[in-house]
Write a structure and sequence with these properties.
By secondary structure, this protein is of the alpha+beta class. The protein has seven helices and 20 strands. The protein has two domains: about 15-275, no CATH class; about 360-455, OB fold (Dihydrolipoamide Acetyltransferase, E2P), CATH 2.40.50.140. The protein has helices at about 60-65, 80-85, 130, 160-180, 225-245, 260-270, 425-430, and strands at about 15-25, 35-50, 55-60, 70-75, 90-95, 100, 105-110, 120, 135-145, 155-160, 185-200, 205-220, 250-255, 360, 375-380, 395, 400-410, 410-415, 435-445, 445-455. The protein starts with 13 loop residues before the first strand and ends with a strand.
Length: about 450
């Protein structure tokens, strides 16, 4: 017996299961197609060794059995613990690691000073990485294919869709209600079907609707009595089998290497930033086979943590159904109150000059070289990532800043902000009319607008 290897700290034997099959409704970039795409059916993939490492390829046996247009598959759940069957979290993945994860209230982030992670805030609707699309809702349903049961390994499907996460988690909770808390051994139908969803178009700065293919979990029965019998009968059989084999007190743990998952998730679930949409659920159909690609790693923004550090890399954040962030309505206040911020140390935002047709500049521009002040009013857009997809830009002098646009009457002004404390303020006002105070900076005949703060109201 080895504590931490074969047994947990309580002395219970740990049954560690590997992931041998991946089920998906999306594909990573491949060949001339340099973007991930969504499918309207399931594909079944297996691992293979390539010069690039371990990648996923279509499983010929499973594809023959289920067909090329499979939209429903019978599965069996593996554990009573819902966090083990369907772990969910907000997660920011880069090509090399899961950089940050949380439950919408608190998060853990890996930084150069704490590679195992440290407590981080904010998490949820106030997080600039979530607003920028770097952080996404994350859910992994773990199961066994009912037609292809295997011992020692499981199947997994990953989703970053709010709709799919809500539907799967709600179905699992409903099943637990009928079975008295049991999930292990339950057979259910994993379904993908078309649904309508709304998303925010970054280019046009307005909401649109699209058709998405969302996941759900269902249990069929001719009537409620047979439905309950199907649920409880399979669960009892599974529990009795585990007891006879001496597995009743074993803890189940799914083993996956995070270093292997990072490039897989970023390739499939992180589209190029110039696609113009602000949703992971927007439709992008394609016909392709499995492939893999590398995605540039996202640099650490260097923002100061809000809490004391922790080096516990395996510490679990409390789980629960992820709630889609809701933007709060700001109470009306006096225009004299503003969220102030210093302007960049080098006098430049490091970007391209923009016209200012809607800027009201202060009439008392000082002759002593101080920067003139201005007020801009318009619709606040999302933070714009740099060429590598980072929400935090960095210029040649090492100054870090964020970039966003304010639009009014068909014109757009690019705003720069080098104060991390203002990023939640930018995120909170995204998609709303706001009045911003800026410093007008001129550098080599180029004019920049550097955010000083927002006028509350």
């Amino acid at each position: 017996m080895i504590i931490g290897v074969t047994h947990d700290s309580d002395g219970r034997a740990v049954q560690r299961l590997s992931v041998s099959t991946k089920v998906a409704i999306g594909m990573p970039p491949q060949g001339d197609r340099n973007y991930p795409c969504k499918l309207d059916h399931f594909v079944f993939l297996r691992k293979k060794k390539t010069p690039k490492g371990v990648e996923w390829e279509p499983d010929p046996e499973l594809m023959r059995h289920y067909g090329s247009e499979c939209r429903a598959v019978q599965i069996m759940l593996i554990d009573d613990d819902i966090d083990n069957v369907f772990p969910t979290a907000y997660a920011w993945w880069t090509a090399i690691e899961r950089k940050c994860w949380g439950d919408g209230t608190c998060a853990t982030r890996r930084t150069p000073a704490h590679l195992g992670g440290e407590h981080w805030a904010p998490c949820g609707s106030q997080c600039p990485e979530l607003v920028a699309g770097l952080c996404k809702p994350s859910g992994d349903l773990r199961f066994v294919l009912a037609d292809f049961p295997r011992l020692g390994s499981i199947c997994r499907i990953h989703t970053s869709s709010y709709r799919s996460i809500r539907q799967i988690h709600s179905a699992l909770e409903e099943i637990r209600t009928f079975t008295g808390g049991r999930l292990a051994g339950i057979t259910a139908k994993l379904v993908v079907r078309p649904e309508e969803a709304a998303y925010f178009d970054r280019k046009e700065q307005r909401k649109k609707t699209t058709t998405i293919w969302a996941l759900s979990l269902e249990v069929d029965g001719e009537d409620i009595r047979k439905l309950v019998a199907n649920l409880t009968g399979n669960a009892r059989l599974f529990a009795e089998t585990r007891r006879r084999l001496g597995w009743g007190d074993r803890a189940i743990e799914v083993v996956e290497d995070e270093d292997d998952r990072a490039p897989e998730i970023t390739a499939e679930f992180y589209p190029p930033p110039e696609n113009g949409s602000d949703t992971s659920e927007s439709s992008n159909p394609c016909n392709a086979t499995a492939g893999a690609t590398s995605v540039p790693a996202v640099r650490d923004p260097g923002r100061k943590p809000a809490f004391a550090a922790s080096n516990d890399r395996t510490k679990r954040v409390p789980k629960g159904p992820i709630r889609e962030p809701q933007r709060k309505t700001e109470p009306a206040q006096s225009h004299s109150n503003a969220v102030d911020a210093p302007s960049p140390a080098n006098g430049s935002g490091g970007g391209i000059a923009q016209p200012a047709p809607t800027v009201n500049t202060s009439p008392n521009t000082a002759a002593n070289g101080s920067r003139p002040k201005a007020t801009l009013r318009g619709l606040v857009g999302p933070s714009e990532p740099d060429a590598s997809g980072n929400a935090i830009h960095r210029n040649g002098n090492g100054v870090e800043y964020v970039v966003f646009k304010m639009r009014q009457n068909g014109s757009a002004n690019t705003i720069y902000c080098n104060n991390p404390e203002l990023m939640p303020e930018i995120a909170r006002r995204q998609g709303h009319e706001a009045e911003a105070r800026v410093a007008v900076v001129t550098d080599k005949d180029r004019q920049y607008y550097v955010l000083s703060g927002f006028v509350e109201g």
